[in-house]
Amino acid sequence: MSNKFDALKISDESGDDESQAKNNLKTDKDEVVAPEINPNEHKLQYAYALWYSRRNPGKQNSIQSYDRNLKLVGRFASVEQFWGLYSHLTRPSELTTHTDFHLFKIGIKPMWEDEANQRGGKWIVRLRKGLVSRCWENLILAMLGEQFMVGEEICGAVVSIRFQEQLIESEIHYDVSYIFHPLLQWSTRHIMKVSKTLQDREDGKIELLEAKLQEELK
C-alpha cells in the first residue's frame, strides 16, 4: 500500500487575499461529505474528516496559505472505517516537527474562520516527548465514543508536533470546562502545562477554571 502522505506536498505560497480565502471556506468544507457505510458497520454519532498540515517554521502564515497547507487524509462515519484509516497512519510521535493532525466533524474545517469555531475556544495540553501517540489515541477514541457527554459541543481535536514538546488540543463551541477532566487522569505527572484560549472570556469563570486545573495537577 502506498504511503498516505506521498501526496502531502506543502506549499510555501502566501497570499494577500484574505477575504477570498474566507469566501472559499464554506465551499471547500461543503465538498467534504460523509462516506456511505454498509448496513453491517457500526455507525458513529458524527462523521469525521482527518486533515494534515505542516507549518513553515519562523514564518507567519496567512489565512490563505494555511488553508492551502491543509490536506484531507481521509473520512469515516463508522467504527470500521475509522480503524481502516487509523491503522495505516503514521503515529504522531513519528511525524516531523511543525506538523499537525486535525480530526474534525465533517462540515467543520480546522480553521478559526469557520463559523462553528468562531465563538468557541480550545483547550491545550502540552506534553513531554514520548507520550503524544498514546494521549492522542486516548483523546480521539473518547471523542468518537462520545465519552465526554458533551459531544455536540466538540468541533474536533488537533495534535501538533513541535521541536521540544507536543500539543494536543480540543476545540469546542463554547466554554465546556469539564471536557478535559478525563484527560487529566492519563499521567498528570507528565503533563507540562495546561492552558486554554477562549474568544468569549469571562474573567471570573476563567480564574475558577485555572484554580481547579492547578488543583488537579498537584
From TrEMBL:
A GO MF term: translation initiation factor activity
Domain of life: Eukaryota
Keywords, in A-Z order: Initiation factor, Protein biosynthesis, RNA-binding
Residue stretches of biased makeup (Basic and acidic residues): 1-12
InterPro entries: TIF_eIF4e-like, TIF_eIF_4E, TIF_eIF_4E_CS
One Pfam short name: IF4E
Renumbered residue ranges of the record's region Disordered: 1-28
Matching PROSITE patterns: IF4E
One Gene Ontology cellular component annotation held by this UniProt entry: eukaryotic translation initiation factor 4F complex
Family: Belongs to the eukaryotic initiation factor 4E family.
Protein name: eIF-4F 25 kDa subunit
Species of provenance: Trichomalopsis sarcophagae
